[in-house]
Design goal:
The complex is a heterodimer.
Chain A (H helix, E strand, L loop, with lengths): L2 H8 L13 E3 L6 H10 L4 H16 L22 E3 L14 H10 L3 H8 L2 E6 L2 E5 L2 H7 L2 E4 H7 L1 H7 L10 H9 L4 E5 L9 E6 L10 E6 L4 E9 L7 E3 L2 E6 L4 E9 L11 E11 L5 E8 L4 E4 L2 E4 L5 E10 L4 E4 L2 E4 L5 E11 L3 E10 L7 E11 L4 E10 L5 E10 L2 H8 L5 H17 L4 H14 L6
Parallel strand pairs in A: 3-7, 6-8, 7-9, 8-11, 9-12, 10-13, 11-13, 12-14, 13-15, 13-16, 14-17, 15-18, 16-19, 17-20, 18-21, 19-21, 20-22, 21-23, 22-24
Antiparallel strand pairs in A: 1-2, 3-4, 5-6
Helix pairs in contact in A: 2-3, 3-9, 7-8, 10-11
Chain B lengths: L1 H14 L7 H17 L15 H4 L4 E2 L7 H7 L6 E6 L2 E8 L7 E5 H13 L12 H9 L3 E6 L9 E7 L5 E3 L2 E6 L4 E10 L6 E10 L4 E8 L6 E10 L4 E8 L4 E10 L5 E10 L4 E10 L5 E10 L4 E10 L6 E11 L5 E10 L4 E10 L3 H8 L5 H17 L5 H14 L6 H12 L1
Classes of the chains: A alpha/beta, B alpha/beta.
Chain lengths: 480, 446
């Protein structure tokens, strides 16, 4: 393959790189109990929430930062991060899109996501998180009619404290891991979704995250609950402006599915990956976990990871309910000096539980990528079934692709399969396409898209289009 | 820490007896002891030992054997019925009575380490410890600290060794003892040989064997390495095997594990020259409360190297199996082919397997894959056999054997293959009897 062209493709600029100049009410860097009290107070939280945060903080102080991942980054100084940043004038926050700061709307315009148009056309309710505070929520009324609660986690803590109390931290406990504990202590915003019994959410729910003010770590907390026979599809998409400082992002996402419930969680992540030398870029250390509590419940994770300097996340499913199903579909693309250590965990506890994992990794440039997964079959998970496929595609001889699947099987009725391959785009494949008049670039694009097809198929329509475009942009000029 | 102290005390007592040894060996021994003292036994918090708890070794109190007495009749029953050059060690102590090196050609040296050290210790000093440093693991450090016996095999360039070289390690019942055999093999350029490590012993033995083997293959050498581990069910067995392959060499490992209460094998091949090829074949059977852990690693350090791995596990009762296989491709090692497969059969609800097949790849022009499956016998296949008049137990037996067959078929030494087949049949007596089964199959064919 033409090396030059590949290099060109790899050397694309970050298209979404710009900083919106909005004054922020930012807390000076540093973390102690006062910081947490400030955040809690700023959010107008009840006493129990503050206690909960402080408890997490105390546990976090006793924990050690994990170092087992196949990643390389300088130590993070948690005291140099500012833990709160909110757009100014929180009192007179816009009540509708028309009142939204035009600069913010401009930001969305630049991203190619005209909020109102998009919401109207696609029928998507958007809870836009702009620097930690939700500034616009649409279609609330329509959702309310269906009985669906979709709001920011801060609102939920104020308006539905009982629900939050009942579910928060039950899937990802405060002391689950270092970053989850940190998040539990300082989370500033995120989404809350509650779909009551028997309700199918009338539209796909979506949150667009943007990291803005420099030096601000983003600690989102998302909680989605589906009661019996309820269904929801949730979309999360991310872009971030270009800057020099590394930004830590340690979100926690918790999903709870009761009997016969179905939660579909899709992510397109395109945060700033740093420049060619790996300078700048986001550290994305996320804890995502869903629990299939009810019988026949189903949780499906789909992710397209193209951004961030470092991605470290394992969306997982705890399959507790009888015959519950966990799914994980992932495409991860790394370029430049990006590093990704990602995968999933499927914990089979209940009888007849099934899980399906498809992970596709593409590493280009000098990037490094690992798939790390766990399939655990407990002694009571009679007839549990897992199929895992993880394939890696290498572009350029300076990239790396690794696979670390863990299988712990304690049940003789379980069937567990794992397949993995690593290869590059075959010269013969390219030749085959080119001999039929397809240009090298198109051929590579076709092959890469074909490689990812199994995952893209799982994405909701709007995201599938976006994902394919993103993939082409990411590898533009590089592949072929 | 007190666990390590028991071993260090035994070591100190021993060191005082061997004052006359060359200084380099004393220095290495000390380095091993220092390293072991510094790191202690691994715990399950160590990623490499995540699934294997070595407390039963660490908390044991093992003496060192003084003699190599073993009943001739019993040794004869345990010995593989093979025409081979044979070195026998009883609880780590060399037994010349049970060894047989008749007609060994001049181009091949097979001798106990103790003798090699007396004859020409400088020749041993260079290669010994070159592949397995004391930093490799606590067990490698411990082995180095205690190293005094083992086997040295040197094959001159171009030599084809007609008969297999058999290293036999026997374990006696009685007071628990430990042994730390050290095996050093230097296969000269374009030489060809078959090496067999065979571990067996008296049924009631409860000893600890901690072997380190270093195998060096010079350009174009071919080495078939069988490790038949049928240690008594009360024995602890830890083995670290390092292979160094230069250009155009071919190494085949047949790692067959049947015995031992706690077994851990580390098998590492370094493919350092173009055209080098390594084949790892493995089979492990577990029953009762046996714990069998196989860690393998293939390092593709040079372009145009090939590896192929196939490990099969069969676990019954409350046995616990571990498979951790890693294929590593160094930066710029292009045109690599590395394949790995691990399949496990769980025969009981309380059997447990932890599998972790890993790929770590830093070059793009490679073809690497791994696959692992865990499951049960195919019920439809069982049914298909039953419709042909085969009773259920026999049908399951046949299918289990067929499962193992993929590895066993490649074992070129009938004596070894038969031993495994018989052992498997013997180990699963309620389920099937191999001898009867084969007869039945033959009868059916007639």
């Amino acid at each position: 393959m033409a090396t030059e062209e590949m290099e060109q493709l790899v050397r694309r600029d970050y298209k979404e790189g710009f900083v919106t100049d909005i004054e922020s009410d930012t807390l000076p860097p540093g973390l102690d109990e006062n910081t947490i009290a400030f955040i809690s107070n700023k959010k107008g939280e009840p006493e129990w929430m503050l206690e909960w945060r402080l408890e997490a903080f105390r546990q976090w102080q006793k924990m050690k930062e994990p170092s087992w991942a196949h990643l390389n980054y300088p130590p993070i100084d948690y005291q140099s991060i500012s833990y709160f940043s909110a757009p100014k004038r929180p009192e007179d926050r816009p009540q509708s899109l028309d009142e939204v700061d035009p600069k913010l709307l401009e930001t969305y315009e630049k991203l190619g996501i005209p909020l109102h148009e998009r919401a109207a056309l696609a029928g998507v309710a958007v809870d836009a998180v702009f620097d930690s505070v939700s500034v616009a929520t649409t279609f609330k009324k329509q959702l309310a009619e269906a009985g669906v609660i979709f709001c920011s986690i801060s609102e939920a803590i104020r308006d539905y404290p009982e629900l939050v109390k009942q579910y928060l931290g039950t899937v990802v406990p405060q002391n689950d891991n270092y970053f989850a504990a940190l998040n539990s202590a300082v989370f500033t915003d995120g989404s809350f979704v509650f779909v009551p019994e028997g309700v199918t959410c009338p539209m796909e729910l979506s949150t667009y995250f943007r990291i803005n003010a420099a030096n601000t770590g983003q600690f989102e907390r998302t909680l989605i609950i589906c009661e019996s026979r309820a269904q929801v599809s949730y979309l999360e998409g991310c872009t971030a402006p270009m800057r020099d400082e590394n930004q830590l992002h340690a979100a926690v996402v918790e999903l709870v599915a009761l009997d016969d419930a179905y939660i579909k969680y899709s992510t397109v992540q395109n945060w700033y990956p740093g420049d060619e030398d790996g300078k700048g870029g986001i550290y994305n250390f996320v804890t995502k976990r869903g629990e299939c509590r009810g019988a026949r419940s189903r949780i499906s994770w789909t992710q397209v990871e193209t951004g961030s300097a470092i991605t470290w996340k394992y969306p997982s499913c705890v399959l507790r309910g009888k015959d519950s199903i966990g799914e994980f579909y992932s495409v991860a693309v790394t370029n430049g000096r990006q590093q990704a250590d990602t995968g999933t965990k499927m914990i089979h506890i209940g009888e007849g539980t099934r899980s399906y994992i498809v992970a596709k990794g593409i590493s280009a440039g000098k990037s490094d990528q690992s798939y790390r997964g766990l399939v655990k079959i407990g002694p009571r998970a009679k007839g549990a079934r897992n199929f895992t496929q993880c394939d890696s595609l290498l572009i350029g001889d300076k990239s790396g692709a690794h696979t670390f699947p863990y299988q712990e099987i304690g049940n003789s009725t379980a069937k567990v399969e794992h397949e993995a391959t690593t290869s590059k785009i075959g010269e013969d494949q390219l030749f085959y396409c080119q001999s039929r008049g397809i240009t090298e670039e198109d051929a590579v694009s076709m092959i890469v898209n074909g490689f990812c097809k199994d995952v893209f198929q799982e994405l909701p329509m709007e995201f599938a289009v976006e994902a394919e475009a993103l993939l082409n942009v990411t590898l533009e000029g590089a592949v072929g | 820490m007190s666990d390590t102290q028991t071993f260090l005390d035994t070591l100190n007592a021993r060191s005082q007896q061997c004052e006359a040894e060359p200084t380099w060996i004393a220095a290495r021994r000390q380095a091993g002891a220092a390293r072991f003292e510094a790191i202690g036994f691994p715990t399950r918090r160590d990623e490499e030992w995540k699934y294997t708890d070595v407390r039963s070794i660490a908390q044991g109190n093992f003496a060192l054997a003084e003699s190599a007495e073993f009943s001739q009749a019993q040794a004869a029953a345990l010995t593989l019925p093979l025409d081979a050059y044979r070195l026998t060690f009883v609880d780590g102590v060399f037994s010349s009575a049970l060894s047989d090196l008749d007609a060994l050609p001049d181009s091949v040296q097979v001798l106990p380490l103790s003798k090699a050290l007396i004859d020409n210790h400088e020749a041993v000093g260079g290669p010994l410890g070159r592949l397995t440093s004391v930093d490799f693991s606590a067990f490698a450090a411990l082995n180095t600290a205690f190293m005094e016996e083992g086997a040295v095999v040197r094959i001159a360039p171009g030599t084809v060794v007609e008969k297999p070289i058999l290293l036999q390690f026997l374990s006696r019942a009685g007071t628990p003892v430990m042994s730390h055999p050290r095996i050093l093999v230097e296969a000269g350029g374009r030489s060809e040989a078959t090496l067999i490590e065979h571990y067996a012993g008296e049924t009631d033995a409860t000893n600890f064997t901690n072997v380190v083997a270093e195998l060096m293959l010079d350009r174009g050498a071919i080495l078939n390495h069988y490790k038949l581990q049928e240690a008594p069910l009360g024995d602890m067995h830890v083995a670290s095997i390092h292979v160094e392959q230069s250009r155009d060499t071919r190494y085949s490992s047949y790692n067959l594990n049947l015995g031992g209460a706690l077994v851990r094998n580390d098998l590492i091949s370094d493919l350092n020259g173009q055209g080098a090829e390594t084949n790892f074949l493995g089979l492990f059977f577990g029953q009762g409360r046996q714990h069998v852990d196989n860690h393998t690693k293939v390092n593709h350090n040079a372009p145009l190297t090939f590896s192929n791995e196939n490990y099969k596990g069969i676990l019954d009762d409350r046995a616990h199996g571990v498979f951790n296989g890693k294929v590593y491709v160094k930066r710029d090692s292009q045109k690599i082919e590395g394949f790995q497969s691990n399949q496990n059969l769980l025969l009981s609800d309380r059997a447990h397997i932890d599998a972790k097949p890993e790929l770590e790849i830093y070059a793009d022009d490679v073809k690497c894959s791994h696959g692992t499956t865990t499951g049960q016998l195919d019920e439809e296949a069982v049914y298909a056999l039953r419709t042909r008049g085969i009773d259920e137990a026999t049908a399951r037996g046949l299918l289990t054997l067929a499962f193992a067959g993929e590895v066993l078929d490649q074992v070129a030494l009938d004596a070894v293959a038969e031993r495994v087949e018989l052992a498997v049949a013997g180990k699963l007596p309620e389920r099937f009897n191999l001898a009867g089964l084969v007869e039945a199959a033959v009868a059916l064919n007639d």
